[in-house]
């Protein structure tokens, strides 16, 4: 009986190499799964996010941006902010619209012709995006201008009109700053501005305005571009100030002119 029990115990005892074998099998399985996943991800990764693109962007950054933003994009006190967390959207907006690199230090970066090609801008955006997470380039489906026009108009009046004017004509702000006109602005730049908050503009993340709502705002702006003022001359779409000034100068001027003409005829 004792022999049978001992024999059974020996048969149930794990071999000393069994644990090592299990670890090896686990590592091989995990490594194989990871390799499969990595190869699939790499196959689906666009060329713009390759290491070569990041390296190109890093070189462009060092030559053109590091003076203000620091060699590692951490910012330079009193000169340029850190770019960690701004994402590709901010870089694409600022560089594509020519606001960056700055021509000179001032109260606000003004739009000018872009200083880089599309590929170079993409490389810069990819490099900055690789430093830390941030808003990315918007999906093309939100830029078609086929959203809800009425909802976009309402959202624009609530969130944007106080600075950009209800017709997107722009307006003056404090200390020499201004909200630029939105007429003719590319949809991608409108979306990027909403998610990055350039200059004095607040950031409208996806909790403030969902991507679909941003698409509605773009739809409204595209509608304004495609439909001229139904009332005739829009006078810059600046509202009652420009309209009142027009009446004051030309209306009263005409009255004074007619009065002088009548007086001259009477004599």
Automatic annotation (TrEMBL):
Residues crossing the lipid bilayer are 245-264
Checking Pfam families in the record gives: Cytochrom_C, Cytochrome_CBB3
**InterPro entries on file:** bc1_cytC-su, Cyt_c-like_dom, Cyt_c-like_dom_sf, Cytochrome_c_Oxidase_Subunit
In which residues is heme c 1 bound? 65, 68-69
Q: Which GO terms describe its molecular function?
A: heme binding; iron ion binding; quinol-cytochrome-c reductase activity
The record describes its membrane topology as: Multi-pass membrane protein
Residues bound to heme c 2? 160, 163-164
The enzyme's main class, written as a single word, is: translocase
Enzyme nomenclature, EC number: 7.1.1.8
- PTM description: Binds 2 heme c groups covalently per subunit.
What are the record's GO terms for cellular component? plasma membrane
Assembly behavior: The cytochrome bc1 complex is composed of a cytochrome b (QcrB), the Rieske iron-sulfur protein (QcrA) and a diheme cytochrome c (QcrC) subunit.
The name under which this protein is listed is: Cytochrome bc1 complex cytochrome c subunit
Task: Look up the coiled coil feature and give its residue ranges.
Answer: none
Q: Which residues form the Cytochrome c domain?
A: 52-132, 147-225
Q: Which SUPFAM superfamilies match?
A: Cytochrome c (SSF46626)
Q: Which reaction does it catalyse?
A: a quinol + 2 Fe(III)-[cytochrome c](out) = a quinone + 2 Fe(II)-[cytochrome c](out) + 2 H(+)(out)
Q: What is its main location?
A: membrane
Q: Any idea where this protein resides?
A: Cell membrane
What domain of life is recorded for the organism?
Answer: Bacteria
Q: Which UniProt keywords apply?
A: Cell membrane, Electron transport, Heme, Iron, Membrane, Metal-binding, Repeat, Respiratory chain, Translocase, Transmembrane, Transmembrane helix, Transport
């Amino acid at each position: 009986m004792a022999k049978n029990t001992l024999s059974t115990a020996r048969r149930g005892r794990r071999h000393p190499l069994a644990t090592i074998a299990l670890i090896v099998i686990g590592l091989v399985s995990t490594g194989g799964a990871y390799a499969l996943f990595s190869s699939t991800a790499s196959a689906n990764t666009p060329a713009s996010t390759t290491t070569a693109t990041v390296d190109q962007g890093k070189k462009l950054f060092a030559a053109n941006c590091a003076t203000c933003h620091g060699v590692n994009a951490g910012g330079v006190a009193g000169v340029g902010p850190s770019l960690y967390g701004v994402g590709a959207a901010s870089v694409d907006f600022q560089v594509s619209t020519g606001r960056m690199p700055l021509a000179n230090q001032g109260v606000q970066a003004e739009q000018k012709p872009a200083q880089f090609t599309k590929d170079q801008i993409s490389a810069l955006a990819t490099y900055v995006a690789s430093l830390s997470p941030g808003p990315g380039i918007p999906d093309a489906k939100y830029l078609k201008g086929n959203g809800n026009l009425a909802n976009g108009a309402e959202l624009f009046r609530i969130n944007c009109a106080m600075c950009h004017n209800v017709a997107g004509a722009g307006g003056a702000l404090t200390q020499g700053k201004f909200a630029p006109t939105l007429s003719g602005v590319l949809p991608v730049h409108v979306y990027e501005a909403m998610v990055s908050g350039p200059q004095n503009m607040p950031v409208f993340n996806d909790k403030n305005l969902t991507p679909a709502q941003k698409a509605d705002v773009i739809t409204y702006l595209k509608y304004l571009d495609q439909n001229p003022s139904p009332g005739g001359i829009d006078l810059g779409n600046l509202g009652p100030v420009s309209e009142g000034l027009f009446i004051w100068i030309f209306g009263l001027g005409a009255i004074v002119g007619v009065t002088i003409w009548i007086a001259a005829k009477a004599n």
